[in-house]
Amino acid sequence: MGAFGRWPWQGYHKLWMLLLLGWVVSAADRTITGPVITWMIENQVSFLGASDHPHALGGLVGSLFFAGYMLTQFPGGYLGDKYGHRTIIVISILWAGVATIVSGFVTSLVGFIALRVITGLGEGAYYSNDRTLIAEKTPFEKRSFGMGVVITGLSIGITLAILLSPYLINWGQAWMPGKNGWRMPFFVLGAITMIMGVWLYRYFRAQQPNLPYRAAVLELLKYSAVFLAAIMAVYFLSESIGMPDYGVAAIELILAFLLIGFAFGKKGKELSPVLYNKNLLLLYIAAIAILWNLWFFGFWSVAIISNAADTSFLKAALTATFNAGAGILGFPAGGWLADYAVRKGWGRKGMLLSFTLIQGLLTLGFGFYLSQGGQSVVLMAVLLFVTSLFFNALQPISQALTADIAPAEYRGAAFGMWNLIGEMGAVMSPVVSGALRDATGTWTAAVMLDGALILASFVLILFVREKAAEEPLMKVAN
């Protein structure tokens, strides 16, 4: 045992740090798409900027990425239970790195969309396996804190991608002729992701030298090929008939429902402990509000502030960072508080309920402020930060509670189903909220709807029955 300052350094702490870095590169790879698309539109890059509706097309690219990310949540967790969670984590990171690098070489719109979808399909397998490995290797009374620390990498990756993208694009413009600077972020971030994948491979190989990578890759490819074909079919259909964005999102949800139906129909007997468990089902459905809120504010917070305060884009963006930045504090703080509650014998559910209720009420308060014509950028920044603090804090608590309830051998499938169902909120939130904004002329109705969904999830969690007995302390990872 060594020491990290005054904090005894255990094997699972190194695991936390490596998985956190995995989240950093994964989040940066997915986030870079937005700034790159914006630059393409502004600089009239042929296969995107020449479109009659470039912003709608750019939004569709992002939506289709998340469709791919959503659809491999459950298969990724299932395959992790089957082939080992370390196996799928390494495959996911290396897959994302390769797909991100190749994205920088494409010369057509269809190729760009397909590569972004493929990236999402690979990244979708990370979440359920990283959550399961943390639950497996972290002492029970530190489980929430570990999940909160690791998921902080999501906020760090998003922040780094946004901050670095202009510099990477300018660097690309200096090195590549024409309007090709947009390719550099994909090359750089993809290469960093590949390095991270190799690092994880070497770390896990020291623990388990013969992980079944080949078999796992082949099976994940089978699922991904089907999902890629389905998602691209949605894209071609939407293009051919001029389908509105919310119609595309609705079809993506149909794909998710078909996958859920497959899970219950074909895997129901095998995975009954996590598919037919009432408590887990309630947590899965409650997660829809979590992902809805995440991508409502993640997608529209700048527009909400700009519209309400009638301020510049830059000032609105800087204000919106209070919403994103709260995750760096909120994720680990929420996890630590939930573990403290466990050590006191209170359980995690009470903390989850409290934070969900507070977040819902604060969101409604934000909506009420907008409805009264509130324009103070400072007050909106404070409201966004405090609300997001509770929102980010509750996520590792929900994830740890899921791990507590699910049998250890099925945790990958449980986390996959949690995020598969929850991601329905991510798919629909930007589209529905934008439609409400267009219909009403303000963001008030969209914010109020978000708050109402959070309070609905609070009601669902009330009926979750938490395990009374704690698990015995487990041996830490080497």
UniProtKB/TrEMBL annotation:
Bilayer disposition of the protein: Multi-pass membrane protein
Taxonomic placement: Bacteria, Bacillati, Bacillota, Bacilli, Bacillales
Keyword presence, Zinc: no
Residue span(s) of domain Major facilitator superfamily (MFS) profile: 15-469
GO CC annotation: plasma membrane
PROSITE patterns registered for this protein in UniProt: MFS (PS50850), SUGAR_TRANSPORT_2 (PS00217)
Regions crossing the membrane: 54-71, 83-102, 148-169, 184-204, 216-237, 243-265, 281-305, 317-338, 350-370, 376-394, 415-436, 442-464
Locations listed in the record: Cell membrane
Alphabetical UniProt keywords: Membrane, Transmembrane, Transmembrane helix, Transport
Residues making up the signal peptide according to the UniProt record: none
Organism annotation: Melghirimyces profundicolus
Main subcellular location of this protein, as a coarse class: membrane
One Pfam family matching this protein: MFS_1
Stated name of the protein: Sugar phosphate permease
Domain of life (superkingdom): Bacteria
